[in-house]
Amino acid sequence: MKPRIYLETTGISYLTARLSRDLIVAAHQQITQEWWHTRRTDFDLFVSQLVVQESSTGDTDAAARRLAILEDMPTLEQSEEATALAQTFIEQIPLPEKAAVDALLIAIAVMSGMDYLLLWKGFSVLASFLLLGFRLFGCACTKPL
Question: What is the sign, positive or negative, of the torsion defined by CA atoms of 82, 85, 90, 96?
């Protein structure tokens, strides 16, 4: 069985967007595209309805490209347990209001048994969640992609 990866929206956007003039964003796009073409078949890829909703917003043509990538991917459910875990994250970690979506993404990945969460945004937020995981569960496991 292949490792399971939950993809969040930023990576899908980097994969399908026109090359950015911002050098950092362009580098993220290139890394994302290289990973997609060389490594994605090593994993089972998943998204959630939240990712599908985020991918469908914005420029119509760009949204169509993002949704085409997601078309055949299994969609994870947002369970009551995931919603409750996200709420725990929000209550336990001092986060900006916009991080509530990230809390839900991470909670869906955790409650769905994903091996990895592949994301570009929110590294400091993710670090906070990992630290909370150490406190709540007493352990954490990291694996390189």
Answer: negative
Strand positions, DSSP E, 49-110 = 75-76
Q: Give the domain range for residue 32.
A: 4-137
| 80-139 pLDDT tens trace | 998 998 888 888 877 777 778 888 888 898 888 888 888 776 554 554 455 445 444 444
Q: Which residues of 96-114 are buried (b: 16+ CB within 10 A; e: fewer)?
A: eeebebbbbbbbbbbbbeb
- Is residue 23 one of the residues assigned to a domain? yes
- In-domain check, residue 142: no
Question: What CATH number is associated with residue 58?
Answer: 3.40.50.1010
Residue-wise pLDDT tens digits, 70-80? 999 999 999 99
Helices (H) and strands (E) in the chain, counts: 7, 4
Q: Which two tokens stand for residue 66?
A: 């993002």
Sheet with 44-48: strands ordered across: 75-76, 44-48, 4-7, 116-118
User: What is the pLDDT at residue 113?
Assistant: 86
- Give how many domains the chain has, as a whole number: 1
Please indicate, yes or no, if residue 21 is contained in any of the structural domains: yes
